[in-house]
């Protein structure tokens, strides 16, 4: 077995792992990233599109913000639609803040390139990655690459390995509580090189189910439809997708819809999941490894970013000031913001999707009344806007 050494070992080269490594590198803290698949595979996952300013600021601090700032689009509003009634939520007017529309694939690529340029080590296609002795002062990770077994010794392990990763499983069951809600539908996404239907995103609630009109640029659109979990991508030809979208988007928006050939189509399940705590000894769970949300509030990646911000501040204090005790602040600080994001995503998901017979008639009626109340009130719209642009990051004690 060959032995390597680093200060912070990072499992997973998704957006959380890359962002953390770039930030720590700026502070002179050494990291090695271990990733199970190839870089191209990571870039094949089309996911988030909406970035909070807090996330954008971190990406700039990490030295990877150039493309985001030149190619990303600043959005000052978003629309909610109930059948054909469109309600603008004027984010900047209501909160002074905005969001940036820039794809997760692009931000990941920018961070990968920056990592390579700065010579930060990442080992792709590392198999059997396993953390050990995380409660001790000498944790380490074993893994295999090209048939050779390695031991990576480190001070701390950042588990940035997503929902299906190995890090969360390292915390014994009796020491963690997992909260979960699995929704009875998925999101079918379609990407096409066609101009977006509208300048702002439209989140649409209809009797046929939820739909979202999003975009990546002036010439690339991203649309989603709520579909039953039993549906397969093969069930949805492009034509069928466009026909259904036309029925769910508000009528006066549909006249601007430009259809075309899809360049990607996929179905993702929707669920909320939170693991408490997010720390076990010298192992930290970051991003989707510790919590996931349904995509309705555009919060998953943004919560991953606030975890990274907290862990980055903690590890900087550990290495610069020798204050090892501050690591205990990670889980409580990160979880406070996570629960807020989980609640917002739950609220948006519950109110905008069609749950069919899973919800009784009374609950359905209550929910449409609640939505109407929020959307007819300036205060209600402000509450939505404040959460959509993202709550502030909490500082360490
Ligand atoms: P991941 O992106 O899952 O990365 C984890 C990495 O770890 C992967 O590369 C994986 O290969 C690797 N890995 C896993 N196991 C191992 C192992 N054992 N060893 C080594 N490596 C391993 N969020 C938003 O904020 N805004 C949005 O608009 C938004 N839209 C979304 C739309 C959709 C359709 C979906 C599905 C998600 C959306 N999200 C959104 C959520 C967002 O995509 C995730 O929260 C984000 O990917 C989390 O990043 P991460 O780095 O924590 O995890
Ligand atoms: C996206 O553009 O992929 C996107 C935007 C907003 C969401 C979810 C996904 O809430």
Secondary-structure blueprint:
Layout: E1 2-5, E2 8-11, H1 15-26, E3 31-34, H2 39-43, E4 50-52, H3 53-61, H4 66-71, E5 73-75, E6 78-82, E7 85-89, H5 91-95, E8 99-101, H6 104-117, E9 121-123, E10 127-132, E11 140-145, E12 148-153, E13 156-159, H7 167-170, E14 177-192, E15 202-205, E16 211-217, E17 220-228, H8 238-248, H9 251-254, E18 262-276, E19 279-280, E20 283-285, E21 291-292, H10 300-321, H11 330-352, H12 361-375, H13 378-389
Parallel strand pairs: 1-12, 2-3, 2-13, 3-9, 6-15, 13-20
Antiparallel strand pairs: 4-8, 5-8, 6-7, 10-11, 11-12, 14-17, 14-18, 15-16, 16-17, 18-21, 19-20
Helix pairs in contact: 1-6, 1-10, 10-11
Flavin-adenine dinucleotide binds at residues 11-17, 34-37, 42, 47-50, 104, 126, 129, 160-162, 164-166, 187, 189, 268, 287-288, 295, 298-302, 304.
What does this structure look like?
- There is one protein chain.
- The chain is an alpha/beta fold.
- The chain has an 8-stranded mixed beta sheet with strand order 7-6-15-16-17-14-18-21. It has a 6-stranded mixed beta sheet with strand order 9-3-2-13-20-19, covered by helices on one side. A 4-stranded mixed beta sheet has the order 1-12-11-10, with no helix packed on it.
- Strand 19 and strand 20 form a beta hairpin.
- Helix 1 runs parallel beside helix 6, helix 1 runs parallel beside helix 10 and helix 10 packs antiparallel against helix 11.
- The longest helix has 23 residues.
- The mean pLDDT is 97.
Bound molecules: flavin-adenine dinucleotide, P-hydroxybenzoic acid
> How many whole angstroms does the radius of gyration measure?
21 Å
* Sheet with the most strands, sense and barrel status: 8 strands, mixed
Distance between the termini: 41 Å
* Low-pLDDT residue spans: none
Q: How many extended strands?
A: 21
Strand content: 25-35%
The level of helicity is 25-40%
For the largest beta sheet, what order do the strands appear in spatially?
Answer: 7-6-15-16-17-14-18-21
| Tally of helical segments | 13
Average predicted local confidence, pLDDT: 97
Using the alpha-carbon principal axes, give the shape. Answer: globular
Query: What is the SS-derived class?
Result: alpha/beta
